[in-house]
């Protein structure tokens, strides 16, 4: 019996040791898994209470935010990431304006965002890696928190040229570091819809109330990193009716030339944002004040005068007033029209030179001058071909508008770009007066007339301006040579 009991106790001990081994191995696995989860789990950034305010006290609630943006934030937060509504949309809501776009910032990296949203997500950009979350035609842009590129550990992900401009900036960091990387204090606001709080690291709320536009960090360094910030400053000043802080204002005059380092296609896009958003006239005046218009349109500078009263300058003002009015009336804007108006008088001057010095006819002079002027324009701003083609059409139709006899007016009226060409003619009448006024009035009446009235308009025009009669010359018959007498 003793032997049996000893055997049983030995078996029990061996079983218990095996079980203990199993438990220890399982516990080890669990610990390893926990370590892996902790490594991959997004780190929570510290957020000091002194920077956090109740959003509802400043007029922001989840009701102000687009439902798609809220969906993106909620989905990221459910996966354990930080996510906030950021930037211009908050600024506009605080100013009582309707935001056009809603952006999100998170500590999830682009690849992690793509893993969460899968087919709904598209990664874009090389200079700044971003995630676009698609909701049909709507896009919510999601950016990962960025850190200071100056850190030597971040040299692989950030790159600058000799002028200090950032060529690549994919250094990821915390929300505090991300706030430091933003351009203006009014754009460095973060909204968390989950607890309805607003994070303001740089007193952007106070700057909004006082109408002050202020760069974050050293202004010279920030302009050197991205010279387009100078144009953004102008745009915000005009759009939001704000003033630029003295420290942020001073370097612009000295650093305006850095815009020449920006890709021309990007400058073209920026010029549209500046001049076709409904406050083009104020923007133009600010660009002239800070010597930035010279960098965008160097080909126009020879046509400017000290008194700002040249035909070119008057045309620019007239075109911008018209564009601002169209934006206010919610009418369609054609980018090509504005630039066709800007360069009309430089074109005319070039045409006169080619006709007088080159001996070209009117049509050929316009064709050659158009190419030369557009080349100068595109050297500074790389306008797409679809726009330059329309600019040519508008210019050539100015010649067709001179033809008021026969079938010419009816054909001109059918041209797809007739309306834009007529608007340019009306502006010419306002700027230069003279024959353009009569021509503009005739075409205005012709458009509103029926067939009979149009015929009478043409007859009246022929009576007032009869065609000169063609001169016919009698051709002398050649006399046959007399036969030579042998």
Automatic annotation (TrEMBL):
It comes from the Bacteria. Pfam families: PolyA_pol (PF01743), PolyA_pol_arg_C (PF12626), PolyA_pol_RNAbd (PF12627). This is Poly(A) polymerase I. Keywords: ATP-binding, mRNA processing, Nucleotide-binding, RNA-binding, Transcription, Transferase. Gene3D superfamilies: Beta Polymerase, domain 2, cca-adding enzyme, domain 2. Its EC number is 2.7.7.19. Residues 19-35 have a biased composition (Basic and acidic residues). It catalyses: RNA(n) + ATP = RNA(n)-3'-adenine ribonucleotide + diphosphate. Belongs to the tRNA nucleotidyltransferase/poly(A) polymerase family. Residues 242-301 form the tRNA nucleotidyltransferase/poly(A) polymerase RNA and SrmB- binding domain. Residues 1-13, 466-486 have a biased composition (Basic residues). Residues 359-477 form the Polymerase A arginine-rich C-terminal domain. Transmembrane segments: none annotated. InterPro entries: NT_sf, PolA_pol_head_dom, PolA_pol_I, PolyA_pol_arg_C_dom, PolyA_RNA-bd, tRNA_ntf/polyA_polymerase_I. It comes from Bisgaardia hudsonensis. It is an enzyme of class 2 (transferase). Adds poly(A) tail to the 3' end of many RNAs, which usually targets these RNAs for decay. Plays a significant role in the global control of gene expression, through influencing the rate of transcript degradation, and in the general RNA quality control.
């Amino acid at each position: 019996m003793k032997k049996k009991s000893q055997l049983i106790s030995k078996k029990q001990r061996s079983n218990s040791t095996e079980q203990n081994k199993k438990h220890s191995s399982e516990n080890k696995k669990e610990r390893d898994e926990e370590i892996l989860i902790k490594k991959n789990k997004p780190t929570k950034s510290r957020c000091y209470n002194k920077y956090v305010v109740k959003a509802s006290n400043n007029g922001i609630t989840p009701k102000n935010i687009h439902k798609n943006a809220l969906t993106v934030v909620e989905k990221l937060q459910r996966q354990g990431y930080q996510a906030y509504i950021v930037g211009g949309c908050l600024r506009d809501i605080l100013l009582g304006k309707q935001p056009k776009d809603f952006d999100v910032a998170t500590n999830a990296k682009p690849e992690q965002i793509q893993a969460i949203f899968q087919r709904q997500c598209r990664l874009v950009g090389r200079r700044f890696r971003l995630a676009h979350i698609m909701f049909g035609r709507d896009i919510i842009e999601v950016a990962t928190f960025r850190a200071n590129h100056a850190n030597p550990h971040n040299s692989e992900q950030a790159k600058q040229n000799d002028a200090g401009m950032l060529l690549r900036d994919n250094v990821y960091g915390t929300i505090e570091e991300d706030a430091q990387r933003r351009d203006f204090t009014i754009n460095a606001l973060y909204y968390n819809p989950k607890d309805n709080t607003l994070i303001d690291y740089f007193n952007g709320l106070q700057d909004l109330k006082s109408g002050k536009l202020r760069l974050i960090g050293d202004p010279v360094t920030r302009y050197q990193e991205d010279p387009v910030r100078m144009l953004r400053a102008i745009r915000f000043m005009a759009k939001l009716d704000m003033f630029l802080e003295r420290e942020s204002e001073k370097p612009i005059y000295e650093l305006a030339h850095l815009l020449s380092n920006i890709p021309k296609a990007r400058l073209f896009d920026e010029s549209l944002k500046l001049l076709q958003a409904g406050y083009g006239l104020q923007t133009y005046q600010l660009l002239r004040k800070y010597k930035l218009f010279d960098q965008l349109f160097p080909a126009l500078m020879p046509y400017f005068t000290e008194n700002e009263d040249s035909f070119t300058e008057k045309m620019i003002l007239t075109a911008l007033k018209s564009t601002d009015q169209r934006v206010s009336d919610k009418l369609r804007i054609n980018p090509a029209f504005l630039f066709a108006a800007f360069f009309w008088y430089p074109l005319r001057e070039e045409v006169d030179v080619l006709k007088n010095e080159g001996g070209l006819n009117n049509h050929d002079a316009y064709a050659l001058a158009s190419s030369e002027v557009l080349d100068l324009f595109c050297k500074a701003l790389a306008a797409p071909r679809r726009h330059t083609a329309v600019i040519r059409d508008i210019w050539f139709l100015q010649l067709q508008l001179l033809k008021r006899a026969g079938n010419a007016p009816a054909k001109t009226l059918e041209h797809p770009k007739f309306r834009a060409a007529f608007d340019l003619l009306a502006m010419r009448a306002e700027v230069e007066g003279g024959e353009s006024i009569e021509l503009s009035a005739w075409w205005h009446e012709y458009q509103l007339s029926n067939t009979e009235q149009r015929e009478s308009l043409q007859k009246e025009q022929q009576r007032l301006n009869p065609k000169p009669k063609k001169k016919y010359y009698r051709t002398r018959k050649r006399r046959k040579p007399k036969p030579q007498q042998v």
